[in-house]
Amino acid sequence: MGYGRPGTPVFPDGWATAAAGVLDGTHESVVTIAAPGATQGWSETDGQTVTTPAAPSYDGPATVRPASESEGSSEPVASEEQVTVTRYQVGLPQPTDGIAVGQVVHVVSSPDAALVGRDLTVVDVEHGDRRFTRYLYATLNS
After folding, report:
1. Which of 85, 83, 32, 20 is nearest to 60 (CA)?
2. Is the pLDDT of residue 109 over 80?
3. Residue 133 confidence (pLDDT)
4. In terms of residue numbers, what domain contains 116?
């Protein structure tokens, strides 16, 4: 840990928890994050096969916005044509354990009506312990 004045830590113990509330107002969306897919099994009660989605690893407030070029929006080549891939930055309150690349971010609500009900696939998770927010980068599922 770095120090400011002699013997005074730059980041005191508990700083992230104490300051995390500052960003609460910026999380204007609600998302559910879970592994893709589901399991199927027979339900005696219903008398039929039931599909159960994976349990969410996160369900709550978030900030969802298009990522800037420096944050990884790219134009890969597919069949000799450039295809624009828009990456989204998903900001979550810290701590958020259990979220991994490949999981799906389902946008439940958002100020951007075009994102509501859409699914994004997590392609990168930024880990850092000196932040107020955990950032995920995700691409829009077609």
Report:
1. 32
2. yes
3. 76
4. 27-140
Q: Is 7 helix (H, G, I), strand (E, B) or coil?
A: coil
Q: Both tokens of residue 111?
A: 């100020």
- C-alpha span between 122 and 126 (Å, rounded): 11
Using CA atoms, how far apart are residues 59 and 42, in angstroms rounded to an integer?
Answer: 27
What CATH number did the domain enclosing 86 receive? 2.40.10.270
Residue 63: CB atoms within 10 A of its CB come to 20
Secondary structure of residue 15 in the 3-state scheme: helix
Q: How far, in Å, CA of 141 to CA of 124, rounded?
A: 15
The whole-model pTM stands at 0.72
Within-domain flag for 40: yes
Q: Which amino acid is at 91?
A: G
Structure tokens at 137: 């980068």
Tokens of 45: 């009660």
Closest CA to 71 of 92, 85, 88: 88
